[in-house]
Amino acid sequence: MKFPGSVLVSLILFVAETAAALCLSGAYRAAGDRMWQWLTLLFALLPCALVQLSLVFIHRDVSRDRPLVLLLHILQLGPLVRCVEVFYIYFHAGRVEEPYVSITKKRQMPKDGYSEEIEKEVGQAEGKLCTHRSAFSRASVIQAFLGSAPQLTLQLYICVLQQEITAARSIFMVLSLLSIVYGALRCNILAIKINYDDYDVSVKPAAYLCIFMWRSFEIATRVTVLVLFSSVLQIWTLPVVLVNFFGFFFYPWILFWQSKSPFPENIEKALSRVGTTIVLCLLTFLYAGINMFCWSAVQVKLNDPDLINKSQNWYRLTVYYMLRFIENAFLLLMWYVYKTDIYLYVCAPLLVLQLLIGYCMAVLFMLVFYQFCHPCKKLFSSSISEGLLSCFKFLCFICKPPKSTVLMDKAEMKSENTDEAWSSSKTIDSQKGNPHQSVSSNA
């Protein structure tokens, strides 16, 4: 049975970041910065409440009549109780023979074009551990993008305005960045396990390293660009954030309305239509929060029974990173044009170059992951290099002028050349005839 290390990492990041947020909000209160104190508390406590709700929803504690567990979740102690339960199950598994086991069938990765199907016995203890791992993975994603990402942006913005980085704030920002990167990593792992649920997937350490580097560069540069832009053009910060957020929030709903599919009713039997709508809105809210800061490896599809798009779309990935790079470059250009005296001792061109190179490094590690380290790369219908090449060909085809206009331009150029040749020949003939005329006049 696999050691539940992901549960332990999620709990450590959750507790450490919440404790650091409370300490830092106390420091802001002592300094008299009430606004920073309340914003820090808001971005710390709101994701905590959402994490408790997600754990209760995944484990179906409301329908199972567990009042003590619900009380502990209300007291914000749910993750601690769940972690204790996980390790109790892990250390007591195998001591007593389980009367019931379920058999799961998984396909192995194809070798030489052949894939074997293997059967595996899964006991009740291992099934419970899988449920807990899945719940903590989703809780880590919620904590990362609805709490840690806004928190990191806020604290970096305060550092820029106050031109000071304290020890408590720097520790808190490091914890927030690690939480976001870990949440993005869990998104990638969840996408792999959901898309290739029929296969026995094992992720190697090289893949984890590539994902960690890819997400670290991507998130760090994105947060820095947003903070730099908002520090000089505060009035335009809210429109930029709202356009990004609501664009990704309504995108799955627009696709759902275009498909003319019936309203999904199979999410949870105990939920009414209103409850289902609230759950779907929260799902798209989280989807928009992820895409605000980085590429969400999991694509929401509301007309699918699993609510997830399982197809690998290289075109959407390419368009996202191209548009995001253009947006980052534009925001940096605006910062460079309107920068204030706060950045008097900052080499602005070098900083812009470093941030753009950092984002390119994120794209490079992403390409390395999908091309060489993805555990299911053998199942791709086309590699990412082929997908990017075909996407660039399509973009070049769009940018290329039509063939008829090119032929017309060539015909116009030919006619102009012939006219110039005729005019030049006439001038030469006239120049040749001029000496004869002068001789006859002299005679």
**Helix share of residues?**
over 70%
Distance linking N and C termini: 120 Å
Radius of gyration, CA atoms, in whole angstroms: 30 Å
By oligomeric state, this entry counts as single chain
Give the topology, please.
Blueprint: H1 5-31, H2 34-59, H3 67-74, H4 78-92, E1 101-107, E2 117-123, H5 124-162, H6 167-195, H7 205-232, H8 237-259, H9 273-293, E3 299-300, E4 308-309, H10 314-338, H11 348-373, H12 384-399, H13 403-442
Antiparallel strand pairs: 1-2, 3-4
Helix pairs in contact: 1-2, 1-4, 1-5, 1-6, 2-5, 4-5, 5-6, 5-7, 5-9, 6-7, 7-10, 7-11, 8-9, 10-11
List keywords for this structure.
single chain; 443 residues; mainly alpha; two-stranded antiparallel ribbon; 13 helices; 4 strands
Descriptive report:
- It contains 13 helices and 4 strands.
- The radius of gyration is 30 Å and the shape is globular.
- The chain starts with a helix and ends with a helix.
- Strands 1-2 form a two-stranded antiparallel ribbon. A two-stranded antiparallel ribbon has the order 3-4.
- The longest helix has 40 residues, at 403-442.
- The chain is mainly alpha-helical and 443 residues long.
Short description:
With 443 residues, this protein is mainly alpha-helical.
